[in-house]
């Protein structure tokens, strides 16, 4: 599917700092997705790719470009349309949402969003991509607001989860 290829290319271009190309390819991905015939069945290997994944990947591209307000908007769209069974994706994109909020200096929402990741994970440890994002969130929060009450509360809460991770 052209849309998936274009959005993945946009993310890679954003990572390498190619802003114009990344934005153009994201627009191409959105346009291509809109032209897809919903009645035509997708190949099994594309079953995961839907509007929520398109905007989730777009959010990652925007984040790499430093457009954290756009990233946050796309993440809200992603989370609103994400299929119920995609629990790991929900945690992953919610962790990205917390980072987008933090990078806009919205500490209260960022900490609440990050706490929701811990709550949703329950007793399961946060490993892999989501665990790394939560580590990044903690480091960035400490750097941005080292003395803030919310930062201290987050650090205490997050430290309580670290015993589960090896």
TrEMBL record:
Lineage top rank: taxon: Bacteria
Name recorded for this polypeptide: Tetratricopeptide repeat protein
């Amino acid at each position: 599917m052209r849309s998936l290829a274009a959005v993945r290319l946009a993310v890679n271009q954003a990572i390498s700092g190619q802003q114009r190309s990344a934005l153009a390819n994201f627009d191409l991905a959105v346009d291509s997705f809109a032209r897809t015939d919903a009645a035509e069945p997708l190949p099994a290997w594309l079953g995961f790719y839907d509007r929520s994944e398109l905007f989730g990947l777009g959010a990652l591209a925007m984040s790499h470009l430093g457009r954290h307000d756009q990233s946050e908007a796309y993440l809200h769209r992603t989370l609103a349309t994400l299929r119920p069974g995609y629990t790991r994706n929900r945690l992953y994109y919610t962790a990205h949402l917390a980072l987008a909020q933090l990078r806009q200096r919205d500490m209260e929402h960022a900490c609440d969003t990050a706490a929701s990741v811990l709550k949703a994970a329950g007793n399961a440890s946060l490993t892999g991509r989501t665990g790394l994002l939560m580590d990044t969130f903690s480091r960035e929060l400490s750097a941005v607001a080292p003395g803030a009450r919310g930062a201290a509360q987050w650090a205490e809460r997050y430290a309580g989860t670290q015993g589960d991770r090896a």
